[in-house]
Design goal:
The protein has 277 residues and is an alpha/beta fold. 38% of the residues lie in helices and 32% in strands. The longest helix is centred in the last third of the chain and has 21 residues. The protein starts with a helix and ends with a helix.
């Protein structure tokens, strides 16, 4: 009897179950969900969207949302679209010089861009610092003969970034409710949470290869000249990163409240325009 048949006939042992779970992404997904829940987020495991091209439902790991402000005119929430990965080998992200205006202009919201763009442009003038941007990364794997390590893109990680692009495009394009009297806006952050190590290589350190261990990178994914900025986070520092993104979202909320009359008027104009189509 072949070894594979013997294993299948015997069934999996308890120790093998534990080892298999440790090497999977299920445990990190459960831990990440627990962190969001402890910070008063409502989370959904394995949500789906309908692929616009194939009409097939596509699943992602986690979606977590929290309402930050709620009155009779406005509901303002922060929403994370999350993929989790148990990366067994470190990932290195290479520094990219990104202008803050480009970043803030492309923060994802569920409102039409003609309403939010003026606010997001103002956000670039706020005191936002210590951002680490990247647009290229690599991980590591052994050659087939196991003689040396190779640096390359893993297809699975590349597909994760692409999947986040599709999810964000769907969420941003389909969530704004023109028929609701109350304006509901979400700031939507795509995020990948890694269990293993993340390194950052600055342009000034390329020759010496002084790798900086880090817990947060904002990775720019460019598709059709419109960038998507993805928060890449190490699980160990997830709470702090959530706090930081809430701070960023709160700045947007303050800008809305400081310009609330104009904001509400623009909302009503968009609704009237939509109803007249």
């Amino acid at each position: 009897m072949k070894k594979k048949e013997v294993i299948e006939n015997q069934g999996i042992t308890l120790n093998e179950i534990k080892d298999t779970l440790r090497s999977s992404g299920y445990l990190i997904e459960q831990r990440v969900s627990g962190i969001f829940s402890a910070m008063d987020y409502f989370s959904i495991h394995s949500p789906t969207i309908r692929d616009q091209k194939t009409n097939i439902f596509r699943e992602y790991d986690l979606e977590s949302v929290k309402v930050l402000y709620n009155d009779q005119d406005l509901e303002f929430s922060i929403r994370f679209i999350i993929e989790c990965e148990n990366n067994k080998q470190p990932i290195v992200f290479f520094e990219d010089n990104v202008d803050m205006t480009l970043y803030t202009r492309h923060i994802n919201t569920t409102f039409p861009s003609n309403i939010t763009s003026p606010l997001l442009n103002l956000l670039s003038q706020a005191e936002l610092s210590n951002y680490k941007f990247s647009s290229q990364y690599c991980s590591f794997h052994l050659k087939k003969d196991k003689s040396e390590w190779l640096a390359s893109h893993h297809e699975e990680q590349h597909n994760t970034f692409r999947k986040l692009q599709e999810i964000i495009a769907y969420k941003v394009g389909s969530t704004f409710d023109m028929l609701n009297k109350k304006n509901k806006i979400s700031i939507v952050y795509p995020m990948i949470v890694f269990q293993g190590e993340i390194f950052y290589l600055k342009k000034s350190q390329i020759n010496d290869l002084n790798l900086e261990k880090t817990n947060h990178i904002i990775h720019k994914v460019l598709e059709f000249h419109s960038p998507l900025f993805v928060d890449v986070v190490n699980e160990k520092d997830l709470r702090n990163i959530i706090d930081f993104k809430e701070y960023e979202a709160d700045l947007i909320l303050k800008l809305i409240n400081a310009n609330k009359d104009a904001f509400m008027q623009n909302c009503e104009k968009s609704k009237i325009g939509y109803m007249s189509i």
